[in-house]
């Protein structure tokens, strides 16, 4: 099972071209809307509840509750929960977005790692991945998708939660045109 997961992660890493998150997002102001907010300045924790909209550049997080903590270096860790928490961010250098949906989403602004838990789905263009837990590193473009540890027990009464993926074929890279033989020179 572990070998299958590793092979699947490698397949996803090879199937997707580089698609780093929009670099300018980290330098953009953080804008948050919610029905209610609780700010704990001493602990550097903010809790937003009720139809939360969290935007920083092209990064968007949506959910019923968002908890944001900040470390001493100013990096933030956000946890989004709700029936369908969502994530969306533009890819660097192209007009494409990565979108994710789950019951709980965690995003670390320092490592740029996104974890989606519970009925997790992630899509980019026509590619689609589904599992109980998706770990997505937007810097390295590595996806790890699994059943969230639900099948760690030896119980055979629980059928395995399978990971599902749809990967679209990529357009072939145009071949380099051959140089006519008459224009080649041999230097001795």
Task: List strands and helices in order, with pairings.
Blueprint: H1 2-15, E1 30-33, E2 36-40, E3 45-56, E4 59-70, E5 76-90, E6 97-108, E7 113-124, E8 127-137, E9 142-146, E10 164-166
Antiparallel strand pairs: 1-3, 2-3, 3-4, 4-5, 5-6, 6-7, 7-8, 8-9, 8-10
Could you walk me through the main structural features you see in this protein, from its secondary elements to its overall organization?
The chain has 188 residues and is mainly beta. It is built from 1 helix and 10 strands; from the N terminus they run αββββββββββ. Strands 1, 2, 3, 4, 5, 6, 7, 8, 9 and 10 form a 10-stranded antiparallel beta sheet that branches. The longest helix has 14 residues, at 2-15. The model is unreliable at 1-20 and 177-188 (pLDDT under 50).
Query: Which H/E pattern describes the elements?
Result: HEEEEEEEEEE
Q: Which structural class do you get from the secondary structure elements?
A: mainly beta
The whole-number mean of residue pLDDT values reads 76
Full CATH superfamily name? Lipopolysaccharide (LPS) transport protein A like domain
How much of the residues is beta strand, in percent?
Answer: over 45%
Total tally of structural domains: 1
CATH topology: lipopolysaccharide transport protein A fold
What's the overall geometry? globular
Number of extended strands: 10
The helix count comes to 1
Helix content: under 10%
CATH level-two architecture: Sandwich
Question: How many whole angstroms does the radius of gyration measure?
Answer: 21 Å
Distance between the ends: 58 Å
């Amino acid at each position: 099972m572990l070998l299958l997961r590793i092979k699947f992660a490698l397949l996803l890493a090879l199937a997707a071209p580089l698609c780093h998150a929009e670099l300018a997002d980290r330098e953009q102001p953080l804008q948050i809307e919610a029905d209610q907010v609780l700010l704990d300045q001493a602990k550097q924790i903010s809790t937003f509840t009720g139809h939360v909209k969290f935007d920083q550049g092209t990064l968007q997080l949506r959910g019923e509750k968002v908890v944001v903590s900040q470390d001493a270096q100013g990096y933030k860790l956000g946890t989004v929960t709700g029936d369908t928490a969502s994530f969306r961010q533009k890819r660097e250098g192209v007009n494409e977005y990565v979108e994710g949906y789950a019951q709980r989403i965690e995003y670390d602004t320092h490592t740029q790692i996104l974890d989606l838990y519970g009925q997790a789905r992630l899509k980019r263009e026509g590619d689609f991945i589904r599992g109980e837990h998706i770990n997505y590193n937007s810097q390295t473009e590595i996806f790890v998708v699994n059943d969230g540890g639900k099948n760690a027990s030896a119980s055979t009464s629980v059928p395995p939660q399978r990971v599902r993926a749809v990967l679209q074929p990529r357009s072939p890279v145009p071949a380099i045109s051959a140089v006519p033989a008459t224009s080649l020179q041999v230097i001795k």
